[in-house]
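Sample entry copied in:
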Amino acid sequence: MSRIGRSPIPLPAGVQVVATGAHVSVSGSRGTLERLVPPAMSVVVGDGVVEVKRPTDSAVHRSLHGLTRTLIANMVEGVSTGFTRNLDLVGVGFRATRQGSDLVLTLGYSHPIRYTPPEGVTIEVPAPTQIVVSGANKEVVGQVAAKIRSFRKPEPYKGKGILYRGERIRRKAGKSGKAGKGK
């Protein structure tokens, strides 16, 4: 059996799970998340725990078992504590500001980049070179962070760009300088 799929999902205080057929709804202090799970998987809500059961031991059902359990566990964690992604801006003159709920980035282009986050995601700028993306849905938070990073991906020669906090960029040497001169 799947080790991930077998383990029950503990429910923190204040989190409620409603499973009707293939539709799972999780509500908590940070909002409500809904998802359609594979119809073959059955979601059983017990006393303080949620368990995912599979009908057979076929390869398809085994692969969906752990996936379904992880998706529901992420929903439970999202509505109770939420998810955050931290980004750092590295480069001379690179900075971020907030105007209302929009994020305005100055990244060395001829124009500033304005980004409006989707509903349910908040963007904070604690310092001009730091961005914090937070929300209840792990997939959406990750997608927004990836979109912001795509405006100026880190380059390997000078290491400039938008990096995830803790990310290391493998640096390249660049040109060798005067190696070919003076025959």
About this structure: The longest strand covers residues 83-90. The mean pLDDT is 92.
